[in-house]
Design a protein that fits this description.
Elements (H helix, E strand, L loop, with lengths): L14 H18 L9 H26 L4 H19 L1 H14 L6 H25 L4 H46 L12 E6 L5 H8 L4 H9 L3 E2 L10 H10 L18 H8 L2 H8 L3 E5 L14 E3 L6 H8 L9 H22 L7 E7 L6 E3 L5 E4 L3 E2 L2 E2 L1 H28 L4 E6 L16 H7 L4 E4 L2 H4 L11 H10 L11 E2 L9 E2 L5 H6 L1
Parallel strand pairs: 1-5, 1-10, 3-4, 3-5
Antiparallel strand pairs: 2-11, 6-7, 8-9, 10-11, 12-13
């Protein structure tokens, strides 16, 4: 705790470090603790620490030049006050976002962001006022410095305390989940096999199925299905996802089961998403491949459920930034500058390209590998046109439906991702012709309505569950694939086919829940028209 003491023996105030780090902890504790694991804090806190030291140093140098090096302590104190003021201004919009979140949870319609333009300039002036006062009246500097130290020390210690409680909750949930997973693992026995091809599981986020694209977006991608078939893929042409939300879908397919059996692990808090992150990160599919001597490789998506793992042997990560870091950056005054949003979106764009690049560079080795990557496209934001050139469009709605511009942007991104996927497969198959591929959408689109609705329309259900579902597997496994196999059973068939694990197939079902109440599961299979069509 020495870093948070009022000042060191040299008399160097440390409140600028607290001023830089505390808002990051506050943002996580109030906005993200229920959906992001605590390790998501590592990168933004590290950046905040480096930024605080940089701004602090520059501020001190400026005041050395301004008042002379003979008054070292005063220059350092003024530099510290100025640095803390800079961070108060930098995070001023972040505080607005936090307050809006608190008001929303409490049921209030108050919007701090809506009135921010009128009072933020006043806040910025007040933030810099202590520095001006200290320059004009040096006698007040010790009191102001002491006040800054005390206030920021209390604030950051409070946030560390809240973070500790969140970490305890997360660890408890993870322990409960892991116990359930290991108990299931103990019941599974496999036969030895010399057939151990590399296995690639590629999730294309929000890649709708052929029927969904035709019906809701009037886009015919028969060419894409034909190209996959030419490369030896089996396509489940009217496949449905089992869940409508990414983390639920990943947790289900990677653990080869429905999620209701894990509900008790989350305790009384039914809005805590961290259990799904744990299930997706440290999943049963990877564990069972590792049991057979496979090397588990995770290609980092930047998204909490698919950017880290305690059981992976290797993580391929192409960019330092991630989804949570970019979310915090958007909440700061950086977002007020022209071109800032495009710059932040370019991080995500580069990350997607890096994921494809990593897949293409993978070589066939003596040790078999199970590779999982979750590519956050063609899901919004829209970062590519049909030819892969940069675009920066977040998407939008009008009366709950996607705007015409959003529909066009989604389809353009679909076309690029489809072409990029085919090109990547060609490179990979040239090196590794016997590899197994599973390429799926985690869920379909939601252009007709919001997924967050507690009572979804039939239109939304039929649209949302339509997904791409393609397999390149040995003929003995392909013979076991059901005509319209669903993701919950994908790796049941593959693992049973390779190693005779004897895992039971799950019944085909479509389970609905909303972002607000992720564990309020409803079986909506009978409402999905495509299920009735194929039955």
């Amino acid at each position: 705790m020495m870093i948070f003491e009022e000042q060191t023996k040299l008399g160097i105030p440390l409140h600028p470090i607290n001023a830089a780090v505390m808002p990051v902890l506050l943002y996580y504790n109030t906005q993200a603790a229920l959906e992001m694991p605590p390790d998501e804090l590592i990168k933004p806190v590290l950046v905040a620490l480096i930024a605080s030291l940089f701004v602090y140093s520059i501020s001190c140098l400026v005041f050395f030049a301004f008042i002379g090096k003979e008054k070292v302590h005063r220059a350092i104190s003024l530099g510290a006050l100025f640095a803390s003021s800079v961070f108060a201004i930098f995070y001023s919009l972040t505080y607005c976002v936090i307050l809006d979140g608190i008001f929303k949870v409490s049921g209030s319609s108050v919007s701090v962001m809506a009135t921010a333009p009128s009072w933020l300039p006043v806040f910025w002036l007040l933030a810099i006022l202590p520095v001006v006062i200290s320059v004009l009246k040096p006698v007040l500097l010790p009191k102001l410095e002491s006040s800054f130290n005390a206030v920021l020390l209390v604030l950051i210690l409070t946030q560390i305390g809240v973070l500790a409680l969140n970490c305890f909750t997360y660890i408890s949930i993870c322990h409960s989940v892991e116990q359930l997973q290991l108990k299931e693992m103990d019941l599974l026995k496999a036969k030895k096999s010399d057939c151990k091809p590399d296995v690639f599981y590629i999730i294309l986020d929000q890649m709708a199925g052929r029927d969904g694209l035709k019906e809701y977006l009037q886009y015919d991608d028969d060419w894409f299905y034909s190209e996959l078939e030419k490369r030896g893929f089996y396509l489940s042409k009217k496949s449905l996802s089992n869940y409508p939300i990414t983390r639920l879908s990943l947790a289900s397919s990677l653990n080869m089961s429905y999620l209701d059996k894990y509900q008790t692990a989350s305790g009384s808090d039914k809005k805590n998403w961290t259990m799904m992150n744990k299930l997706a990160r440290d999943n049963q599919t990877a564990r069972l491949f590792k049991r057979q001597g496979y090397h588990y490789v995770l290609v980092d998506s930047g998204f909490a459920a698919s950017n880290n793992s305690n059981i992976t042997d290797e993580i391929k990560s192409g960019t330092f930034s991630d989804f949570f870091s970019e979310r915090i950056l958007r909440s700061t005054i950086v977002s007020l500058f022209p071109g800032a949003e495009e710059a932040i979106m370019s991080f995500a764009r580069n990350r997607i390209l890096n994921q494809f690049d990593y897949l293409q560079k993978m070589e066939k080795c003596n040790t078999p590998k199970f590779v999982f990557t979750h590519i956050l496209s063609p899901h919004e934001p829209y970062l590519f046109n049909a030819n892969g050139e940069p675009v920066y469009f977040p998407g939008g709605r009008c009366d709950h439906q996607w705007t015409t511009e959003t529909r066009k942007a989604y389809l353009a991104q679909v076309q690029f991702i489809q072409k990029k996927t085919l090109a990547t497969i060609d490179v990979m198959l040239a090196k590794n012709p016997d590899a197994i591929f599973v390429i799926q959408g985690d869920h379909g689109t939601h252009c007709s309505d919001y997924v967050s609705e507690h009572s979804p329309s039939d239109n939304l259900l039929n649209e949302r569950y339509s997904i791409l579902n393609a397999y390149k597997v040995p003929s003995i496994i392909q013979a076991r694939l059901a005509k319209d196999i669903e993701p919950v059973n994908s790796f049941v068939v593959i693992l049973n086919g390779l190693f005779d694990y004897g895992i039971e197939l799950s019944p085909d079902k479509q389970i609905y829940s909303s972002y607000d109440e992720p564990f309020l599961f409803k079986d909506v299979s009978e409402r999905v028209i495509r299920r009735r069509e194929k039955d």
